[in-house]
Fold this sequence. Notes:
globular; alpha+beta
Amino acid sequence: LTDTPEDQGAWECVPEVFREIRDDGRRELKRGEDFSGYALHKVPGKAGSLVIWDGRMPHSSGHNWTDRPRFVQYITMNKCGDEEERQSRIENWRQNRAPRYWRNMPRQVDPEPWKKPARLTAHGKRILGLTRWS
């Protein structure tokens, strides 16, 4: 693991927009919305850092201006007990599809080109929601 400085594609976000969304439960973001009037916050990371955020906040990886690759692992957490979301995750897995909000992103293939869904361990099945936690 190595540190990720701002110029190596650090995580970026626009927290002021999230505050507006949080404070006005009716406001939803639109793809391609202009955020040029807001400050972009670049969040460099020390090796082993964990960044946790609400997915409704505009966020992205910054551009990597260095000659070193940036390594990252993303983990999506979901609300427990949301049956509609659970069914959607399972269906996406079965059909090799990304979540709906990723499908029009650049370089996102939909559906993914795999012949079969990923093989899951018992723990992976619980995380997906395919089997219940006991």
